[in-house]
Model the fold of this input.
Amino acid sequence: MKNGTDSFVFLGHWPSAGSFGFNTDILATNLINLSVVLGVLIFFGKGVCAGCLDNRKQRILNTIRNSEELRGKAIEQLEKARTRLKKVEMEADEFRVNGYSEIEREKMNLINSTYKTLEQLENYKNETISFEQQKAINQVRQRVFQQALQGALGTLNSCLNNELHLRTINANIGMFGAMNEITD
Done:
């Protein structure tokens, strides 16, 4: 006997005693057994399956209800977020516009102050140039005057002798005395 089916086949060869006997047709016996098992399962398992299905239906309905509530809350939060986003975007646009105008205003202030600074620097430069020119002219005059004075003193010293020197002093004293008499 190799397996359980061989035993049924072996029993099928027994002589049948009256109306009782073994059905050796495996397909027919399996269908009968399956129909009996299915009938028992349907009769007794109907309540169990219906209870399981009802529980499953309630869980699905609760899940759907919870999902709908969560969806509603999510939609509310989304609308609030959109409202806040619009408000923030409007504020950002306002800041951007104000920022641009502020930047332009600061730019113009900077340009104006730069022009004023450049004008002041130009004035200082011109004053410095004028001062340096006047200083150079005065230095040249002083050198010319010193050279002329040295030349005149050299000429006077070479031309004047003691007698001429005394006559010049006496003439100056006489003129000074005459001026004194006129003013008294």
About this structure: The longest helix spans residues 26-159. The CA atoms of residues 63 and 147 lie 118 Å apart.
